[in-house]
Amino acid sequence: MIWLMKLSGLFSAAMVMIVLAPALQSFPPAEAIRSSHLDFYLRLPVDTASSRSLNRFSFRKASTFRNAGQCGGGDSRLSGKFGVCDPNLVHVAITLDVEYLRGSVAAVNSILRNSLCPESVFFHFLVSDTSLEDFVRSTFPQLNFKVYYFDPETVRNLISTSVRQALEQPLNYARNYLAGLLESCVKKVIYLDSDLILVDDIRKLWTTNLGEWTIGAPEYCHANFSKYFTARFWSDERFFGTFAGRKPCYFNTGVMVIDLVKWRNGGYTEKIEWWMKLQKSNRIYELGSLPPFLLVFAGNVATIEHRWNQHGLGGDNVRGSCRDLHPGPTSLLHWSGSGKPWLRLDSKQPCPLDALWSPYDLYGNSG
Ligand SMILES: *[C@@H]1O[C@H](CO)[C@@H](O)[C@H](O)[C@H]1NC(C)=O
């Protein structure tokens, strides 16, 4: 509840409105399909144009942060910044690209501001433009982080031809390569999309027990799982037979806790690539980076509470359509779907919940 104390007046008012809203309708879990992997199919040219004009020098510096007394572990004031191999760290991986830079920065800011031990969070940024490293250092001067170059060529030939060239985004696939990119001393990582904020301490998500499983994510077992794959997939046992002995459920790949040791030992990067190659010759699904994760992991996922991915807040393509939260507690708000809070706020047509995103925005003179 630490974060509650940090709420601004506007933020609290918005929260109260949400809590009191009489019609807290949930939307069908099937809507989870409108997640980030789909965004790049739906992304409008106008979004791209406006984000290209985003000036990376127009970001304000994040406010300073410091661990609470009870954080324990190494004292960073004596030893300098934590090394990446320090066992007390919480590891977070996020992509940084020009189009979603404002979202990634708000996500990082939200994690720091709601953590009891912000100095103990280590960020792993995946980029295809290494000049962003200086940008991170100037925006978050105290941050423990490392920037990793993700070569778009890694996936160029694996992205299905069904994807329109102009909208394809190789960084969207970088989450499949974390186990190889990050230092081998990093045994676990939380992968987060760039269109979300945390309103709770990320260490609670970090300490989720994955049990025997390699990844953890909130699961949506009421979603119609069959629609994530083509009729061709479901008509050929060589394909759908992969789910034999499993109870596959949809999960959103925008928030995942990954055991990197189990991932490396299991060769999951290659397993996901195997399905991506099959897709090129057989068209077994229509979407981008999500279905191969479902093929490899669905039904073999550690269940994480739904509060850690209140997804779908981006709404759908219909202009002006806004989404409510799912019933239940909220620790993470995810603007998956076509709308992004920064674009709606800029166009003076925000959805009510976008007011929860803006306190973390560091762009321009806002906030
Ligand atoms: C699930 O989706 C498939 C494919 O779109 C459809 O044929 C089937 O009727 C759906 N099932 C339910 C229960 O809605």
Can you describe this structure?
- Pfam families: Glyco_transf_8.
- This protein is of the alpha/beta class and 367 residues long.
- It has one domain (27-53, 85-360): Spore Coat Polysaccharide Biosynthesis Protein SpsA, Chain A (Alpha-Beta Complex), CATH 3.90.550.
- The protein contains 16 helices and eleven strands.
- Helix 6 (101-113) links the parallel strand 1 and strand 2.
- Helix 14 packs across helix 15 (290-297).
- The protein is globular and about 55 Å long.
- Residues 224, 226-227 line the site of 2-acetamido-2-deoxy-beta-D-glucopyranose.
Tell me, what's the shape? Answer: globular
Strand arrangement within the widest β-sheet reads: 3-2-1-4-9-6-10
Catalogue the unreliable spans. 1-52, 163-167
Taken as a percent bin, the fraction of beta residues is 5-15%
Question: Given this structure, which CATH class is correct?
Answer: Alpha Beta
SS field, number of helical segments: 16
**Count of individual domains:** 1
Gyration radius (Cα, Å) is: 20 Å
The main β sheet shows up as: 7 strands, mixed
Succession of helices and strands: HHHHHEHEHEHHEEHEEHHEEHHHEEH
**Span of the ends, CA to CA:** 22 Å
pLDDT averaged residue by residue: 83
- Class of secondary structure makeup: alpha/beta
CATH architecture: Alpha-Beta Complex
> Would you report the number of β strands?
11
Distinct small molecules: 2-acetamido-2-deoxy-beta-D-glucopyranose
Helix content: 25-40%
Membrane topology: Single-pass type II membrane protein
Keywords: Glycoprotein, Glycosyltransferase, Membrane, Signal, Signal-anchor, Transferase, Transmembrane, Transmembrane helix
Family: Belongs to the glycosyltransferase 8 family.
InterPro entries: Glyco_trans_8 (IPR002495), Glycosyltrans_8_dom-fam (IPR050748), Nucleotide-diphossugar_trans (IPR029044)
